[in-house]
Amino acid sequence: MKVLTNLSIPSIIILGLSTAVFLLNKAHFFSDFKTSTLNEVLTPIATIIAFIIYYATLIEMQKTNKKSIQFQNISFVKERMENLKYRLESQKISIIPKFQEKFKLDAEYNLVHFFKAYKEIHKDMRNLIEQNDKEIYDHSMFFFDVCFQFNLNVTHIENVIQEIKNSDFDKLQKNIIKEHLIKILNDYLYVVSVGKNMKIATYTYTDYKERTIQISGYDAPFHSLPFDELFSLFDKMEFAKIYDLIKSEKII
């Protein structure tokens, strides 16, 4: 059947007519012109040709429908990611005047583009900690704001990843979609990955109560209310949840 579906309809008709002529000639139709011989040869051949054409047309329609559905699915996933990008860009991260002036930062960033501010404020916090300065409240609250707002979008991001996983796109299409997702989450992925992949970036913070905590990468110390407990902000906020999911699904 696969061979038949690869034949064009004109080829099938020509093949059928050639077969009919061959059989009619073999039955001596062209010498006696018997109607019964014509019917005996043409009727089964016409039936077979009609079946083959119907079958080939049906297969072609199925292929066309599959391509149409796949195109719709790709468009849907792309639309979902554009919605995700818009959603993350709409989440504003405010920069207090002190940091704006000190690091020449804008008044606002968003969850797609925030690394410039994050890097400068984190570097300043690290310098203060190395100088044994325990007053890092403003720094810590900035990082908390980033984590908190990002967590508001975790379910939405998980749904997009699940849609990519469940899709029946070919390898190239999936790679293009994955690259688009990585581009949207680039700042977030970089901030998380530094601590996970560069253990040399570990530092120690000691607070006013002489409690000590080790922090990796772009993570930050966090005092949790109401009991004033000292935590890793990323651990407390489960900030690496999406990063871990993306790694497990081999998107990066």
Structure description:
With 252 residues, this protein is mostly helical. Helix content is 68%, strand content 9%. Strand 5 (221-224) and strand 6 form a beta hairpin. Mean pLDDT is 83; it is low at 1-5.
Kindly summarize this structure in a few lines.
The protein is mainly alpha-helical and 252 residues long. 68% of the residues lie in helices and 9% in strands. The strands form three sheets. The protein has a two-stranded antiparallel ribbon.
What percent of residues adopt helix (DSSP H or I)?
55-70%
Please count the beta strands (DSSP E, at least 2 residues each).
6
Radius of gyration in whole Å, from Cα?
34 Å
Proportion of residues in β-strands: 5-15%
Specify the overall morphology.
rod-shaped
Figure out the total of helices.
12
Largest sheet: 2 strands, antiparallel
N-to-C order of helices and strands: HHHHEHEHHHHHEEEEHH
> Oligomer, anyone?
single chain
* End-to-end separation: 42 Å
Spatial order of strands in the largest sheet: 1-2
Arithmetic mean of pLDDT: 83
Structural class: mainly alpha
Low-confidence stretches: 1-5
